[in-house]
């Protein structure tokens, strides 16, 4: 059976990122959060834009004040006052100083700032009580960034820090990748919508809601088509529509070996290339992955835990890569101590759902209490991590280290 690692490589090697020319849109900064930058950005401005003061104090010539002490202060003539946003008019000459404030432009002639606390002002004179370091408290033009070089590379996700940089560089509109388009549907004769009265044998379709949430979480645009009966004609119709209108299709259910599990046959009849139909993992073994010329197809297993585990493990990284992220699309695995004893049959790579808790500043993994059937979604609530037991590992002792996939 295909290992999880090989399944992941098969999928991610087939994922083409969105096109840097065709798949972009312009957004303004206040709506740019979590979008992915499509083009690298630079600025025609140096940062800082000019030499400026880091303190409220006095701009001086270092050579004038290098011998200043509390006992023998240096006395300078104050020739100008320079608040922030003002262009200095006077060159500071030997024996002179300018009153200056934080962020204000350094005047010509001065090279050093003495902070206010080390001085005493008396009308147009200032007493300097301590020798500063040469060029102390001066932020030099271009020290943070030189105009024309790369400010931000393409393919990064934008959050507060990058948005601040873009704003400071004067970009009010930026080019980002469009959101990947994902179509989701559920298959099963037994499924009904929440709020509908249940007839014998029916259950509510929870997968469409969970999957739509996970897909949006990684920045995709979702179209949910709802529930389709286990009926080949209906399924064929919806899959044809889905592949024509998306980058990725996600269905849940109908991928195992039962008489009503039609997904694979229909994919075949529509000319899909089926890359695999099962993976050596639990839950999630009957995962089906197929491609059409412009669309990736994930046939997730119907059991609620299996659908979510395979979405976390394979679909979310796929969406992130397709969305144009240049790196970091893979899942984040942490090595932590397990509080709980964890068990597997050793035959499958086993994903155990639970919670990472911070205990004295260190993460520990707690398996979810209750029934750990892949049909039980009740104890999946509040899951923020999956412990991963590799093939061959049957037991993790309490306090033993284990790899966990962070899912929230
Ligand atoms: N003989 C075998 N039977 C099964 C195998 C196997 O290897 N041999 N694998 C089992 C595993 S593992 C899984 S996982 C399931 C996968 O089943 P399907 O993908 O075919 O899904 P369904 O048969 O349609 O449903 C399975 C289960 O999940 C419930 N379900 C389905 N859709 C939803 C939904 N949208 N929301 C909530 N719950 C859903 C459905 O009612 C069933 O209980 O196959 C095993 N069988
Ligand atoms: O994977 Mo099924 O995914 O074990 O219930
Ligand atoms: Mg089935």
From TrEMBL:
Pathway annotation from the record: Cofactor biosynthesis; molybdopterin biosynthesis
EC number(s) from the headed UniProt entry: 2.10.1.1
Entry annotated with the keyword Magnesium: yes
TM region(s), chain numbering: none
Substrates-to-products reaction catalysed: adenylyl-molybdopterin + molybdate = Mo-molybdopterin + AMP + H(+)
Pfam families, sorted: MoCF_biosynth (PF00994), MoeA_C (PF03454), MoeA_N (PF03453)
Annotated GO biological process: Mo-molybdopterin cofactor biosynthetic process
NCBIfam families named in the record: Glp_gephyrin (NF045515), molyb_syn (TIGR00177)
Name of the protein described by the UniProt record: Molybdopterin molybdenumtransferase
Origin species: Anabaena cylindrica (strain ATCC 27899 / PCC 7122)
